[in-house]
């Protein structure tokens, strides 16, 4: 069963992310037929990235030799076990030009993401720390084991604080898009 889920995850990685990248309105999408290998030949991608989490049918523990970057111009890809430091630029109420950095050097514009399975359960938890002086909001999609995206709600992240989102099932990948400053009066958890 472990091998089966490893193959499912490999399939997800090669197909699910390709479809989300092809729909992205940035430099990657301008080359709609580009493969991950072609993209990574001239761009910084994740290499030898370990993904480990439990499912109903056993544990997935796989090292991905090559995978799309965590930070892309207008979106962020988050895998189980990730702790990401992402710098962002802001303009007209939007956050964009995401860049993954190895450590925090610019505290005022570095978001922190952590995505992991909760102890002794199949549930997953995402934490997001907002360094900005304004509340932020974003769209969040869960990628399932067949590579299909599913919209899920996300809560605004208050200025200078963190938010914790949780789901009661395993999630192979989260895709975060449309990050923007939120109206301070709108503190609802929606897509």
Numbering strands along the chain, what is their spatial order in the largest sheet? 5-4-6-7-10
Structural class call reads mainly beta
Number of self-contained structural domains: 1
Can you count the beta strands? 11
Low-confidence stretches: 1-31
| Main sheet record | 5 strands, antiparallel
Distance between the termini: 34 Å
Q: What string, H for helix and E for strand, traces the elements in order?
A: HHEEEEEEEEEEE
Global shape: globular
Rg, nearest Å: 16 Å
What level of helicity do the residues show? Answer: 10-25%
Q: Number of helical segments?
A: 2
Proportion of strand residues: 35-45%
What structural keywords apply?
191 residues; 2 helices; 43% strand; mainly beta
Question: What would your notes on this structure say?
Answer:
The chain has 191 residues and is mainly β. The chain has one domain. Helix content is 15%, strand content 43%. The chain is built from 2 helices and 11 strands. The chain has helices at 2-22, 36-42, and strands spanning 46-55, 58-67, 75-78, 83-91, 94-101, 110-117, 124-129, 136-143, 149-152, 162-167, 173-181. It has a 5-stranded antiparallel β-sheet with strand order 5-4-6-7-10, with no helix packed on it. The protein has a 4-stranded antiparallel β-sheet with strand order 3-11-8-9. Strands 1-2 form a two-stranded antiparallel ribbon. The N and C termini lie far apart (34 Å). The model is unreliable at 1-31 (pLDDT under 50).
Give the SSE layout:
Elements: H1 2-22, H2 36-42, E1 46-55, E2 58-67, E3 75-78, E4 83-91, E5 94-101, E6 110-117, E7 124-129, E8 136-143, E9 149-152, E10 162-167, E11 173-181
């Amino acid at each position: 069963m472990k091998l089966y889920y490893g193959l499912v995850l490999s399939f997800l990685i090669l197909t699910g992310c390709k479809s989300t990248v092809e729909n992205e309105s940035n430099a990657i999408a301008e080359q709609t037929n580009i493969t991950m290998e072609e993209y990574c030949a001239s761009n910084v991608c994740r290499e030898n990235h370990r993904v480990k989490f439990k499912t109903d049918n056993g544990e997935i523990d796989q090292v991905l030799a090559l995978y799309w970057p965590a930070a892309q111009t207008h979106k962020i890809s988050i895998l189980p076990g990730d702790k990401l430091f992402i710098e962002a630029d802001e303009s007209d109420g939007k956050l964009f030009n995401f860049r993954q950095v190895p450590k925090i050097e610019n505290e005022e514009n570095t978001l922190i993401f952590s995505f992991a399975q909760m102890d002794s359960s199949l549930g997953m938890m995402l934490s997001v720390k907002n360094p900005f002086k304004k509340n932020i909001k974003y769209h969040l999609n869960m990628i399932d084991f067949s590579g299909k995206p599913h919209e899920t709600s996300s809560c605004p992240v208050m200025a200078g604080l963190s938010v914790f989102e949780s789901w009661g099932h395993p999630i192979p990948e989260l895709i975060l898009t449309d990050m923007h400053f939120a109206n301070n009066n709108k503190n609802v958890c929606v897509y």
